[in-house]
């Protein structure tokens, strides 16, 4: 038998690739026709959607969507909460469609309708000898043209996605639903039970589920929220299993994984493992301390920076886990030996040109890695970055739309406005200033050749730091320090902005030329790197072919499928993690102190042992979360975990800290944690008495 | 078959009881003659010793003793460390007897030579109608007489031990070895790997082992340290197994468990579970914060209070674990239903007198429990407590030895001096004052009738707290605030102490009368309680007999045996703890940050996979720690874990936080964590190359 890919269960596959994996799918326990899986317009793929950053699935003919609780917190719970009504505390259940709550502006449901290879169109007019900067411009212009042609209406969003570091480009065409409403969310003590403590941990007991509903106009077109809109009727939806899965069962996750780094060169891996992780830990740790020090409950800044801080903490925990995982799975050692094998293959089989390209790539990477640190500490002022972006926007808007830089076209204007509006509840100029100053001090300590000269000079970085502080104080004395004022800036044209005598804008103008130069330099370098890397991928593919293995594209936010089995695991010496956790484990963890503080009513429900149809005899209870060998990453949150019959058996919501290094290299011990469909149904039935929802679902008993 | 006791594997049995458990022992896998186990003078019991607070065992014919690392830290490692030589960092190995290091003053090895029931002698002259205070005095005098008769020489220590709350008394006669030396201790990164983080946790990877040697005079008498002393030759010693145990194997622990509370009345349990644990947590938490706030690295007080703080932390963790365990194992519910059954038995079968006694006991308990809180916050000044004790000592020494209060006799004087000397490195008057003041503030907040009136008045507790502070400042302005000065106090007679014009002594004198009155009241009450409780035990025993079960005495620091099997366990929903951990788990936990900071040389040894004779194929490595169903508690630390052939297979060193509530009620899921004999031997062999020790041991391959 041909071993198609690197390991059993490894891979985040594009739907079109699944038919060639038929033998392995069947071996894992898949019983249906594999062909079903590759058609985006058919069940089950047509039920799978993206929320942008999270995944989800239709679970009724009336546009009902299941996803993770943690995917709807900000746009639905935060947005609809007030001092009178804290949806985090109470949870929310609409007992009829009338009661459903609308989303924060900009919340979207995306349905992939097409995925087309367009490598030739993106690279049109380009040869291997095209000079890098020109290559960069050509690719950008080609992309803009392709997107413009594709986006035939306002409800269609098109994205050019890079696969295999630019060896392949694809055009993803998405239908964008703009009216999305909250149907159900449990209280936070269920939806994020265990909080930051249990994040990336197992055994786990999180009810990380929530329900939304998609609405469209009566004619089926995508409209912003309106009373006139009607529930969206998708091509298909997932039935929900009340039987759930058993240990060893086949499962599959369909969703939108965000990013993996499994096709790196060895010097890239080496850098991250030896230096990058540690630098990130330092940077994040400093960031957490900065926010703690400079925000307060009293003036509301603690709340404003809560999201940023928890982002830092989350990332800190992740990187620390990756660092440990790299050590425990001896990543450097195994990757080194694989790389050495690859290099001997290259030596024997590659043309001179291929070998030269590889050598150039490795040298280019080494060179850019050195500058990474400096870039990390540059640009940590949200205020200055926003002003820079708006000045650039004004400059770009002097040009016809198609000539503008991507990100500054007409299609980008609303997103830009929304990002400014968000400053309202996530930005404070004093806190921003304190963070900026602290980061600047680190930037100042770098050797001069790593720093931007004009930027350094304008901020007095080569003088005593007191002078820098004075300059920064001056910049922040700007009158554009609230979202309302900053939105005014957005309306100005270049002439108006140039006429402003504001210290922030004066500073932005003073470094504008330099920032364009750096952008050009980075683009040029990125274009070369992309060219060299796509050649590296071609070589790597040849190498793997020579040992009868096949590579798959790194995750890039496009629709993917991964399959595997329900299975426990041992990732710590002396401990085995069972595949299922139970309701009783919720009670066991309950301490009365957050994040383990369940309401008594839920404890009583659990104590009553009224398991109903959701009882699972191997654990003598209702399963809460389960483990499987599925290969997922960030972005897969909310993904439907389905069985062989395409029934929803869970929602994937997390991985395990011990194997989070899997983003760099597939780890056979890596597990996906899904919330069990039986826990969702038990909650809706026994806790919430949500008959309206249960009636709408197709439940398989 | 008669089910002799409450659960399989339950019980900390006295050696004489083992023959009656023969059937159950055989069922558990024991293959030898049970009779061997009940004779204190025969192998293996004659190899088992106490270090006071810890257990240990002879493992060579030349007085070599194996115990836990954590049992020898203070008297051997701390004592022999200096700024030049930190034994915690380096560990210590004597490559010949000459190199062995002596112990801190007072370190002892105790060998139990007799255990005799003496209930009748202790209760001589006492009837059920004896008035409580008289009862108390009579018992005390009887005990003193018995001990005096027993302690025929200085090397014999005799203790009257209370079993079954005073239903039974026994005289324990111990041979006391006074010259004990350090032979081997691994570095702290082995001996306490995981530190406070892993304390009471599994999976565990602690090399909690150390070796001592006992020395006696050439004539076999017990002498203090002398070059002339020779290694003690015990009646027997344990051979060490290099084969170790397998999953399911029979194991037994012989040692000195300290204290359990398994024969409480329901209102005692209820109080601890509902109020006592929480109050202790509050008290300990406050204590930890107080030490943090009032000590500093700079002036050395942080170091002085390190022991106290870690004691608080340790106890805090334990009580928190007990609180959780009580909840998870539904202790209150199961104990309530057992109690109700007991009460119906009492109703049907008890005499009126027996029932009256029970009622009186429960009422007395309820009454005293209310005062517990007040007693907790009274007397938190080490300075005042020490001065009180010395003043009392001076007063007692006016009487002939046999008339003195226990604790103030001639036999107690050396212990008293040692406790003062210890202040030198564990006491600072400013820190003591700060802690005392804080505790006083809590004491002040109690209702007046719960407080001692004279003590309260002298400390101005009914005035504003400022006045209390002034008074406390005055007391602490004493000239007796260092161990050297306090030792002077100890040499004074009562007249000299009464002539002192020192504010500390003046204060002690002013509350002396009251403290005697309270002592009398407590003694009177304790005597009644003891009488009532021994009657309760008699009733309880009848009840259990009626359901064909047998009770065993709570742990009380006497020699006990517990048997069971090597077995993993699930104590957390979703996780199973394997019975063995491995060398590779040490590497896995290593982060480079304490308490997970192993030297590279050890990591390299592990990576080399040179397992030698200690390889255990089921785990493909050398086992480090293992779990068994043995029923142990504090004081068992260092106990020999032996197999059916009485070979040492491990040293018991810890329980698991999830089942630490087992001190209150046997929990079938409770496990003992032992360090594996194979890890000890591997370390001595492969890491330390300690051929001198390996040659001395009898190793069974």
Automatic annotation (TrEMBL), chains A, B:
| Biological process annotations from GO | peptide catabolic process; proteolysis
| Domain of life (superkingdom) | Bacteria
Indicate the transmembrane segments per the record.
none
* Gene Ontology molecular-function annotations: dipeptidyl-peptidase activity; serine-type aminopeptidase activity
Region of interest (Disordered), ranges: 394-413
Q: Does the keyword Magnesium apply?
A: no
Which family does the record assign?
Belongs to the peptidase S46 family.
Please state what the protein is called: Dipeptidyl-peptidase
